Amino acid sequence: MFGFGKVTLNIQRAGAEEYRGMPAPFVILIDGQCSLCRREARFMQRLDAGRGRLDVVDIAAAGFRPETYGATMDALMGQIHGVTPDGRVMTGMAVFREAYGAVAQSGGVKARILSSLMGVTGWPLVRPVADVFYRWFARNRLSISAVAGRLLGDEPPACENGRCKVP
Fold first, then answer.
1. Which of 101, 130, 136, 158 has its CA 20 to 30 A from that of 78?
2. Which of 133, 161, 162, 159 lies closest to 34 in space, CA to CA?
3. 3-state DSSP assignment of residue 42
């Protein structure tokens, strides 16, 4: 449960901690069985350095319920989703811009530099290209991640029940 102001948003979290007295974090929903997704999430968490600006929820975890976020598993598998502290759901490159912006708020120089670089993907002439590239990546992320995972020594994803089929 996240509290912000007088509004409370109940969302399923990876842990049971509560954020009382702290600003609610930006939440990213990642496929924990995707090697690159896991690496990116861990990297962003390191940038956050325990400040509580970013929370990561693994959509591949046992007991995860996509309806908690008003989405289907197919939609969540199709592209990254994020939830703002006020409960808005966003998708695609906007999630990365928001996540890097969140960790930069009270983060170090590295977080601020990366946030600025990610911000470039929102510029009017760059945004359409970045969005097209991300949509291509999202459609192919499992095969890209499998190759990258083998190169990086990660475990391959479990692909039972059509899980590795991206909508």
1. 101
2. 159
3. helix
